[in-house]
Amino acid sequence: MELTHFNDDLLSFLHTSPTPFHATATMKKHLLAQGFVELIESEEWVIDEGGQYFVTRNDSSLIAFTVPQLNLNQLGWRMMGAHTDSPCLKLKPNAQVDRFGFHQLGVEVYGGALLHTWLDRDLSIAGRITLKTQGGEIVSRLVDFVDPIAVIPNLAIHLNRQANEGFSVNPQEEILPILCGVENEFDLHELLKSQLKKQYPALAVDSVLDFELSLYDTQPAALVGLHKEYICSARLDNLLSCFVGLKALLDSKEQRPSLLVCTDHEEIGSLSACGANGPFLEDVLRRLTPNPEQYVQAMQRSMLVSADNAHALHPNYAHKHDKLHAPAINKGAVIKVNANQRYATNSETASIYRDIAAQENYEVQCFVVRSDMACGSTIGPITSGEIGVPTIDIGLPTFGMHSIRELAGSHDAYGLYKVLVRFTQRGDLISRV
Hints:
It is a single chain. A hairpin with a 2-residue loop joins strand 5 and strand 6 (102-110). Helix 5 (236-250) packs across helix 10 (412-424). The chain has two domains: 3-86 and 234-424, Zn peptidases (Aminopeptidase, 3-Layer(aba) Sandwich), CATH 3.40.630.10; 88-217, Aminopeptidase i, Domain 2. 26% of the residues lie in helices and 27% in strands. The protein is α/β, with parallel strands linked by helices. The protein has helices spanning 3-15, 20-33, 72-75, 188-199, 236-250, 280-288, 292-300, 347-359, 379-387, 412-424; strands at 37-38, 51-57, 61-67, 78-83, 88-99, 102-110, 123-133, 138-144, 178-181, 205-217, 222-224, 230-233, 258-263, 303-307, 310-311, 334-336, 365-367, 391-395, 397-399, 406-409. Strands 1-2-3-13-4-14-18-16-17 form a nine-stranded mixed β-sheet, with helices on both faces. A five-stranded mixed β-sheet has the order 11-12-20-19-15, with no helix packed on it. It has a three-stranded antiparallel β-sheet with strand order 5-6-9, with no helix packed on it. The chain is built from ten helices and 20 strands. The radius of gyration is 22 Å and the shape is globular. The two termini are 38 Å apart.
């Protein structure tokens, strides 16, 4: 797969994935198209040698894997991990707010969003609705309004003369989107029923019972810069890594058992039934290797590449970096290191990754946060701590992380994809002789 085609597919993936539910559905569609078989957690599994499978949980997390051979305790897994969620604004249960002549939406901030970037953007709504049909069934469906139907206008500088000296946004009072004026009738549940009928004409909707809906920026992802050197989009953290891992799994040669895990709720700590700090991955792996002795053997012959975005050196804020660990955009993926295990990288996993990257002539960078600044974390230490798998944390250099629109290199993702394809084919990882 060459660079232009890869980036076209990436832009399409970002466009069709406004929420973790939609990202999971998009990945599911790609997997089914390539012959992967969907497994249902509540049913008995039959795994065949040479098979390709995937399973979802909560419609927002996904694990896909290939098993060219079934002696997993001898071969181990080549795992790739990412997360499906991004900071955003989520509708509250009683979301309809009418004040001062406007119909608005009450929202709750999900994760560490850069709130001011949500102002003056063309916003739409997407997510999951759970409903009761006229036949009495309770079912869930994904919705996406697509069109810009909401906006959060900024306050004019004439009313906030200190805006350019430091600006904060009150999440309770100042981030409520405007839908329309009160001269127009508006009922949120009726709006949701109407959208369900529009997207699912054959679905006989009786009532909307509940929903998990988010706002998102309708501006599509794009290649930007004088020479199209950058990709600008919402949710690059961390759909960029989900896409790279998915493509690597689909294009692996199946020489080794390979697995992609993309979990929800990383931005809020990963502690959920479908998060990395929950039982999803271990449940799947133990079903594939139910013998306790062989399960441990399999984990110790495995390796996880945890991929999450990294902070690129911003030319306007260079002082925020350790100058010896300041990654550049379009100079390769970043190995993330932290002495306090906020990242799971160690010298062995880093060395294995460096060796694989060198075989692809792919540059490697390294990131360590300034010693006087707090360090973020990823699914890497959580997953490694849960199942004992040797892990490396890597990431693609990014500007504006947690902004409504982030910026990354248009060459970096493709290079990482090639390295991960080779990783899925890797034999023995490190000699213990």
